[in-house]
Each structure stands twice: as C-alpha cells, then as structure tokens.
Amino acid sequence: MFRLAALSSLRSAFRPSFVQGMTVRRFGDAAGLLAKDEVTERVLSVVKKFEKVDPAKVSATAHFANDLGLDSLDGVEVVMALEDEFALEISDEDAEKIVSVADAIKFIAANPQAK
Fold it and tell me: What Pfam family does this protein match (any one) (predicted)?
C-alpha cells in the first residue's frame, strides 16, 4: 500500500509541467461548473474566430447552419474548437445535438469537466 503511494507521488513529482498562457477562471457554483456568462463569452469568442463565420452575425442564439451558413463539417470543426477551448471531450452523440451557439453554451455550462 505504501509502495503504491510512494510510486504515485514520484510520478507526479517528476512529471514535466508545461507553462501556457495565464488563464483566469471564475468559479461557478459548488458543483465545480463554470459560470454561464464566462462560458457564453468564451463560446462566442471561439465561434467568432472560426474562419468561415462573419463575426457580426454571431450571437448567443445563432444557429450554425441557418444563421452562420456553416455546413455539417464546419459544425464538427466548431465543436472540436470548443473541446480545445474548454479542455473536454464531447461524445459524437452529444456533438450531433450541438447545432447552435445556445446548444454549445448549455452543454458546456452543465459539464463539470469544462475548464
């Protein structure tokens, strides 16, 4: 038992740490969820940076296909960009349900793994 604990602490002690840009995180509720306004701001930022999107058309209620003119492959790319932004994995089943900015905000704000 102690050997396992010692190995675990050694692994974490010698694991290289990578320095990235500073991230400011506001903590949401006690469940560890991100605040909805923070999620909204970050989702809007990701979608606005997508090369095929006119940033002026992006809103919290914009539909990927109807309002932003994205096809299904573009929608997948946006979901992948959101996975990168929030450091989480979105299953294929859940990704198919994310067809608008509002869907993305709702899913991410309710996901405890989102960072």
Answer: PP-binding
